[in-house]
Amino acid sequence: MNDDQIAESPKALQQIIEDTNTLGFDMASEPKTGSLLRILAASKPTGSFLELGTGTGLSGAWILDGMDDYSSLMSLDNDPEALSIANKNLGDDDRVLFECCDGIKWLENNQNRKFDFIFADAYPGKFEGLELALNILKVGGFYIIDDLLPQQNWPDGHAPKVPELIAKLESLNNFKPLRMAWASGLMILVRFK
Q: What is the pLDDT of residue 151?
């Protein structure tokens, strides 16, 4: 078995990859991460999904590919140029809403909402405002993060933050964590109360 072989990719993925390369965006999620997001999304019919860090829409394409027709995805980013690629390639899907905003402010202003699935692929909701993100996750919901294995594009001083984040997530009382030394390094938490 070769886990690098992914049976089927989302329809929009190739165009998003081409647009991403043209832009020179180097923080996109990889196909293994995307394939896992798709499977987890498929487990939440009529689900409410949140993506913190749209980027150019690569992860969003996978999430949408796993969602049923009655689910919705809210995807946030503060980079209008990257977000325009996501919107160009995925914006016709009425299940998704893209918003260019400050992720922390959005989380602060939306504490009354609840989500079945949160993919935190940016600092907001991951390294900053973690509690704000976890507060809006439903019981039984997935909280997913990636880029926990060393990456060439990590900024200076980032490496020590990763083990601190992992330790913090594993210490939470209302969540069951799973570390995955796979793809870019993933962690999944499930809220159980």
A: 85
Helix or strand holding residue 42 (H, E): helix 31-42
Whether residue 47 is predicted with pLDDT greater than 80 in this model: the reply is yes
Confidence of residue 51 (pLDDT cuts 50, 70, 90): very high
Cβ atoms < 10 Å from Cβ of 81: 12
The count of other CB atoms within 10 Å of the CB of residue 65 is 19
* Strand boundaries in 85-185, DSSP class E: 96-100, 115-120, 137-145, 175-180
In sequence order, the β-bridge partners of residue 50 are 74, 118
Q: What's the distance, Cα to Cα, between the start and end of the chain in Å? A: 36
Q: Going by DSSP bridges, is the β-strand pair 48-52/115-120 parallel, antiparallel, or unpaired?
A: parallel
Strands in 13-71 per DSSP E: 48-52
What CA–CA distance (Å, rounded) separates 63 from 54? 11
Cα separation, 112 vs 135, in Å, equals 9
| Backbone φ and ψ of 173, nearest 5° | -75, -30
Rounded Cα–Cα distance for residues 144 and 177 (Å): 10
